[in-house]
Amino acid sequence: MAKDFPTREENYAQWYNDLVIKADLAENSAVRGSMVIKPYGYAIWERMQAALDKMFKDTGHVNAYFPLFIPKSFFSKEAAHVEGFAKECAVVTHYRLKNDPDGKGVVVDESAKLEEELIVRPTSETIIWDTYRNWIQSYRDLPILVNQWANVVRWEMRTRLFLRTAEFLWQEGHTAHETKEEAIAETEKILDVYTKFAEEWMAVPVLQGVKSPNERFAGAVETYCIEALMQDGKALQAGTSHFLGQNFAKAFDVKFLSKENKLEHVWATSWGVSTRLMGALIMSHSDDNGLVLPPKLAPIQVAIVPIYRKIEQLAEISEVAVKIKDALENLGIRVKYDDRDTYKPGWKFSEYEFKGVPVRLAIGPRDLENKTVEVARRDTLEKEVLHIEDIDIKVKNLLEQIQKNLFQKALNFREDNTRVANTWDEFKDIIENKGGFVLAHWDGTTETEEKIKEETKATIRTIPLNAKSDPGNCIYSGKPSNKRVIFARAY
Amino acid sequence: MAKDFPTREENYAQWYNDLVIKADLAENSAVRGSMVIKPYGYAIWERMQAALDKMFKDTGHVNAYFPLFIPKSFFSKEAAHVEGFAKECAVVTHYRLKNDPDGKGVVVDESAKLEEELIVRPTSETIIWDTYRNWIQSYRDLPILVNQWANVVRWEMRTRLFLRTAEFLWQEGHTAHETKEEAIAETEKILDVYTKFAEEWMAVPVLQGVKSPNERFAGAVETYCIEALMQDGKALQAGTSHFLGQNFAKAFDVKFLSKENKLEHVWATSWGVSTRLMGALIMSHSDDNGLVLPPKLAPIQVAIVPIYRKIEQLAEISEVAVKIKDALENLGIRVKYDDRDTYKPGWKFSEYEFKGVPVRLAIGPRDLENKTVEVARRDTLEKEVLHIEDIDIKVKNLLEQIQKNLFQKALNFREDNTRVANTWDEFKDIIENKGGFVLAHWDGTTETEEKIKEETKATIRTIPLNAKSDPGNCIYSGKPSNKRVIFARAY
């Protein structure tokens, strides 16, 4: 396994890119800005999907599917939405190709021009609310708790694998409610689902909060978010949950007859996480030796490697190895026994280390004699020799320990890299020289927010939920502020 | 539940369309030719996906994801493929919108024209083989056994929900092999997977065979297919598995160093099934009372309805109903206990009947006294009163029986509607007046095939695999033929 890639210290951006490609997670495609998600990367994404999908269903949601294409005119219906979304989009203008009269390949058939252009969905509020109009007549039809797993396209100029791609995979929930309170409760419930998923599955600690008006989703009344901190000190928005008020119901004329027999506009939420989470996962835990995966999301949780000189020894080792494999699989653990004779043990060790397999077991002739197994954990790179008795239980416990350790390590990192700034100079110094989250007072205006961004590239990542009142003065304008917000440079 | 829709006899096409809409499976969207798959329909599709995905993985396949967009020039690389696919496609020509100078909505920004147009994938052979070129160097990199779950777009002029839509959901497998034999074996293995899925999960019997050259996938050397027969006597192609030879490897220059150290082109297969299967499922089993679903794919397998006059009686009934529900769920059965007081039992009966729930249990005061339950099965519409003892086991057995019965009924229907034609008059008479599959001799030429299609609208659905030699004369041309093929009018 090739280790010819820079350390995080040397070049963090290159380290990330090389890691994604060399660990077989994803690669760039022939289509600018679109990636290919390779089987190993997709296997991780599938586990994320399965866990999230179960959490959505456990909280009463169902899946559905809406069209990829959205008529152009739909984007003009919600005023804020069009500003935020209708700009960098893929536009379908024709529906046919024909043979080039010159005999070279195919050309667009100009006679097959669409009357109205179709936009490849950048997000689906418009087409979904156009649909909900027919689904909702009375309060009996509410709530609608629908989620969709889909691909979306936003024409990004500067792309990075998983973090920012023209096409990406995501889920988008779109719910409809009788009351404002119920819609807000839904928005918050989903924020909790996302938080639980990030922390318990991805082992990535996140801050919960709301966005400043400037960073809100185009068309939302309030955008809730979870924010994670990467190892280079930059923040990453890991998921958003929007309270949309009645904006889309008004734009698409979606009304219901209430229990009080009044015609009212429906209240809405939307929420999503995407393949961007793959970027967060990779950047949170991986190191200069390669990928580090939390056991709950690792496609292979345990790799077993036989150590032998002569092929005759392999049969004896395999007998033990297969027993261990079966015992582990009976506990629901995903195991690969790698008895390929075409690669040396050292090569396999590097391979599983590089690909982030949480636990590697090695069994050699001496282990057979001593009834032992060498157990190596990826997170700490520690090795120990354990007696074979109850090895399945020991490994199961170790996997749980690794899952917890990764979370704790990431939490410690975030705590070590969350700083309070009380003056503008302090703020600039931290952002420039230390990175991480900065807790600072802000006067609440978009003007100040934008000036801070201009001068430091730092943005308000989130306004923490339930922060205690803590009066002070805006680090930039000196105007009064009643609580601190979180600033950082961000992905 | 509204039953104001025609019987199959009165108007089969309308019956199908109304059923899909009124049973909340899918509906037309604001985008011409694109459907919305509603939660109840999507829940069935999810079960199909889960079953198929497991079968693919059990046969060694992994999932990945490739771009939605394909550069236009890729389509010109495989000569047959461009003829078959590059015509009716959605073409992306621009990547930005801007505010209309007139102040009305948004217009396409002409300055954001793509240098090369992008085609929304109608199928992914081209982009995938362009990718495989970088994945494959030596025989050690083979086989590649990759599947993708994705949406695709083919610009259809006449669309029908699930059966033919501009956008549809599907899976497409794309495999790469060292040898011709291995690729053919893969093609056949997948045909068996599809057959098993159709028959064991969907309860739809299918014929296995290959397509005539005229009906082959554009770019394939051989197209294997499974064909089902619908209740109106029309055939429906339910899945295809293509042996692609070295066509795509040559078009995209994908070579590998063989064990003999020679540079050779890679052998390929591709295979897919789509949301079209939903149409096959609905049309195979449903009746004039609504949807009929095979238990294995039904989102709700058992509905329990309490019968009571006074609300006081409900608590007592619920106690028994919940116990039954728990016992059934412990056996892995999907149950809904419908204790809504806002609807009458009769309304609920119609609802579950219309939505195809395989088994409905009803419990009233007299049942409490007698320790009985009324059990109604959807497939035969029969009811019986059973003692409550071991009701969970009885229902489980009944579900298995229903699954088998649906398959047997569909198989009987197909056998009753498979006829032999020995003369052209006989052939025309069957096609025109009886429908179904017709076994007839064909001279093997595309010319004859097309003339038969012109005159009768019947096409060769499949050339059965392993059919015994049975010499005769072509029903149309009188030329010699050594085995019969299957003709039918088709969806």
Give a nutshell description of this structure.
The structure is a homodimer of 491-residue chains. The first copy, chain A, has 491 residues and is an alpha+beta fold. Chain A has helices spanning 12-22, 39-58, 79-85, 125-135, 180-201, 247-251, 276-285, 311-330, 345-354, 365-370, 391-416, 424-434, 446-456; strands at residues 26-28, 35-37, 62-63, 69-71, 91-94, 97-99, 106-108, 113-120, 144-153, 167-177, 207-210, 222-229, 235-245, 255-257, 263-265, 267-274, 302-306, 335-337, 359-363, 372-377, 383-387, 418-420, 437-441, 459-464, 472-473, 480-481, 484-488.
Describe the 3D structure:
Two copies of one chain form a homodimer. With 491 residues, chain A is α+β, with helices and mostly antiparallel strands. The first copy, chain A, folds into three domains: 12-67 and 124-285, BirA Bifunctional Protein, domain 2 (2-Layer Sandwich); 295-402, Anticodon-binding domain (Rossmann fold, 3-Layer(aba) Sandwich), CATH 3.40.50; 418-488, 2-Layer Sandwich (Translation Initiation Factor IF3). Helices cover 35% and strands 27% of the residues of chain A. Chain A contains 13 helices and 27 strands. Chain A has helices at residues 12-22, 39-58, 79-85, 125-135, 180-201, 247-251, 276-285, 311-330, 345-354, 365-370, 391-416, 424-434, 446-456, and strands at 26-28, 35-37, 62-63, 69-71, 91-94, 97-99, 106-108, 113-120, 144-153, 167-177, 207-210, 222-229, 235-245, 255-257, 263-265, 267-274, 302-306, 335-337, 359-363, 372-377, 383-387, 418-420, 437-441, 459-464, 472-473, 480-481, 484-488. In chain A, the strands form seven sheets. In chain A, strands 3-9-10-16-13-12-11-24-27-23-22 form an eleven-stranded mixed beta sheet, with helices on both faces. The longest helix of chain A is centred in the last third of the chain and has 26 residues, at 391-416. The two termini of chain A are 29 Å apart. The mean pLDDT of chain A is 96. The interface between A and B is large, with 64 and 64 residues.
